[in-house]
Design brief:
Layout (H helix, E strand, L loop, with lengths): L8 E3 L2 E3 L3 E3 L8 H9 L5 E6 L11 E4 L3 E4 L8 H19 L3 E5 L3 H14 L3 E5 L5 H14 L4 E5 L6 H8 L5 E4 L3 E5 L1 E2 L4 E2 L7 E6 L3 H14 L4 E4 L5 H9 L4 E4 L1 H6 L3 H15 L11 H6 L11 E5 L9 H5 L5 E2 L7 E2 L9 H5 L5 E5 L5
Parallel strand pairs: 3-16, 4-7, 7-8, 8-9, 9-10, 10-15, 15-16
Antiparallel strand pairs: 1-2, 5-6, 6-14, 11-14, 12-13, 17-20, 18-19
Helix pairs in contact: 1-2, 3-4, 5-6, 7-9
Bound molecules: flavin mononucleotide (FMN).
Length: 377
């Protein structure tokens, strides 16, 4: 369905036709793949991380976990910087100019590597540089960011790793040197085992890999909120974006763009446009005309947190016009407060209900809500 909502955003002094961009990964592992993301509806472009040498990547290096998460043991690009500068960036830049989109290049990792790669990227017309940092040491973080800042005048974005500690604090330390942040990189190391053969599923030494996709989203969302709380510079939210609602959620937490890797690996390049379309439809349905209207609304309301209620002031309440007697709520109620025998509308014993909220979140028909005890009769 065509949508009226405007998704175009201006970030880092560039216009993105919508806020959905690729996040670094094999989805943008070559110039042609970057072109595919433009054709798939991405609002801006990004090319896979390169470094001073081609990455020695173990094989196999990706395995799906559950329906929509991944473990990977990729590193940066398996293509050499020469290959990127001689060939891949030309294709990516041509696609960017053809579609009128900004192109972000991603680089790593040491101060020396960034200082040597970045000016070459600026010289060929790259619009923005993202650098991945995994250091735990604050001085090393600053030295790296400063080296890049001194090397180029185009916008630079620090991509933060979830294991690096307090990302709000890291953002505060890096803020003087960078133009924005990307949150977060994949999380790990983690492990999956092939139990039929008692062997690793990934080719790394112990089968360890890094978690991404839906399982990462709550961690990423919390990180985006914490970073957006301490900086007014743009934050690219990365982690488990696969639907329009994910984009809305990240924007409410303060994001200015969202990055997509796992969902593109599992669903193909059309997913960027799909996410943007769904977000526009959500905005239409909720009476918004521009994506910027939802940006930061959660951040501003809960910047200082909410009142924490430790007494039981509420009870589950069943909207009988919505209840379909499915019995799901009874199964999850640990307190025997919900009775839902087959073919019977769910019923709450308010005296037993502890207002834990689990039934509300599992009801497939949105038939349960928490109400103040004195109003729930
Ligand atoms: C297979 C794979 C390779 C990745 N390679 C890179 C990389 O080269 N540089 C980087 O900064 N992040 C890399 N990432 C991390 C993603 O860019 C992203 O931060 C993370 O996967 C979370 O987003 P997602 O849930 O949309 O995948 C990679 C992720 C995956 C799954």
């Amino acid at each position: 369905m065509p949508s009226n909502a405007n998704l175009s955003v201006n970030v880092f002094n560039h216009t993105f036709r919508n806020p959905v961009i690729p996040a670094a990964g094999p989805n943008v592992g070559s110039g042609e793949m970057v072109r595919r993301t433009a054709e798939g509806g991405a609002g801006g472009l990004l090319a896979k991380t390169i470094s001073s040498i081609a990455a020695p990547v173990p094989h196999p290096n990706m395995v799906r976990m559950g329906k929509d998460s991944l473990l990977n043991t990729e590193l940066w690009s398996e293509l050499s910087p020469e290959q990127w500068f001689d060939h891949e960036y030309d294709i990516a830049l041509a696609a960017a100019r053809e579609h009128g989109l900004p192109l972000i290049a991603s680089i790593g990792y040491t101060a020396e590597e960034l200082a040597s790669l970045a000016p070459r990227l600026e010289a060929i017309g790259i619009d923005i540089i993202e650098f991945s940092i995994h250091y735990l040491d604050a001085q090393k973080l600053i030295d790296t960011a400063r080296a890049l800042r001194n090397a180029v005048s185009i916008p630079i974005v620090a991509k933060l790793s979830p294991h690096a500690g307090d990302l709000g604090e890291i953002a505060r330390v890096l803020e003087p040197y960078v133009d924005g942040f990307a949150c977060i990189n994949s999380f790990g190391p983690t492990l999956m085992i092939d139990i039929e053969h008692a062997q690793p599923l990934l080719g790394s030494k112990f089968g360890f890999g890094w978690l991404s996709g839906a399982a990462l989203k709550p961690l990423a969302l919390r990180s985006v909120f914490e970073v957006a709380r301490v900086t007014s510079k743009p934050v690219i939210a990365v982690g488990g974006v696969s639907r329009g609602e994910d984009l809305i959620e990240y924007f409410m937490a303060g994001a200015s763009l969202v990055g997509v890797c796992t969902a593109a690996l599992l669903n193909g390049a059309k997913v960027y446009g799909k996410i943007a379309d769904e977000a526009a439809q959500w905005l239409d349905a909720h009476g918004y005309t521009h994506i910027e209207e939802v940006r930061g609304v959660y951040l501003e309301r809960f910047r200082e947190g909410q009142r924490v209620v430790t007494t039981v002031e509420q009870t589950a309440w069943v909207d009988e016009s919505r209840c379909k007697s499915c019995t799901v709520c009874e199964k999850v109620c640990q307190f025997d407060a919900l009775k839902a025998p087959p073919k019977t509308l769910a019923h709450v014993d308010s005296a037993a209900c502890t207002s834990c909220g689990l039934c509300v979140s599992v009801c497939p028909f949105d038939a349960i809500e928490l109400r103040q005890r004195n109003l729930a009769a």
